[in-house]
Amino acid sequence: MADITRRFGWRHLRSAPTAHIRHHKRGRLAHDGPGLSFWYRSLSAALSEVPVNDRELAMAFHARTSDFQDVTVQATVTYRISDPAEAAARLDFSIDPDTGDWRGAPLEQIATLLTETAQQHTLDVLARTALAEALVDGVASVRDRVAAGLAAEPRLPTTGIDVVAVRVVAIRPEAEVERALRTPAREQIQQEADRATYERRAVAVERERAIAENELASQIELARREEQLVEQRGTNTRREAEEHAAADGVRAEAEAARTVRLARAEAEAAREVGAARAESQAAWLRVHGEVDATTLHALAVTRLAENLPRVDSLTLSPDVLTGLLSKLGATGPEPRA
């Protein structure tokens, strides 16, 4: 929008480099060009401002495919006004000389023209295309058809409009249809994921089986070694018992031999002792045999006295004493009573 200031009944206009200004004064063209700056009187001036920069027009509309499916088309058209004089002659680009605002809506008219033209060609393409094909190749075909249709549109050159580029952003079906179309792919992806999961589980089971087999083999080897160890321990124990038995036999034989030797020695000693005692007894008997009876009686009494308990006093009757003395052959005075 042009910048307009007031000074003493005059107006001063200053435009941007991307705006083409046409100034008519009393029906004659006084100023014509982009980025102008000049003074004028508002009562006698007719001003037009035509933007000459590239402008983006976003559009979205519905279309129906050959299989009667509703789709939404999102596109963007880039255009510019290449002939401002033609555009100002065909469209109302006039501005208020006091405020600089457009009196009409020329850009909306251009947007309507471009949108309806692009929509017409889009509908023509999609009406002959199935939904699946439209979703796969529809963007390129619609873009090419819209670009060709806008280039062939006779109203655009006569209005001074050039189409710079056409871009189709997306072609989308309804939400339910889009979910239905996604289902097979999702199912396939899920099947692939399940297959990968099953393969991973199979690999895990195989590894677990290998681990279990290794553990079982280890246990078998351990049991075999334990069996060998038990057998070796039994052999060692048996050998140890045999060694102990042999040692005990040797010890017993030595003990028996020692006992026999001791017994023989004791028997020999006892025999010698017996013989000595017999000889002593025989000698004793020979001695006593040679002694008279009185001496023997005295000896017997002496031995008896040695073995009797101590007697402090003894009272003998005369008869006993007389008989005893007579036997001993002793003489003496009469014993007192």
TrEMBL record:
InterPro entries membership: Band_7, Band_7/SPFH_dom_sf
Domain Band: 32-197
Organism: Streptomyces pulveraceus
Name assigned to this protein: SPFH domain-containing protein
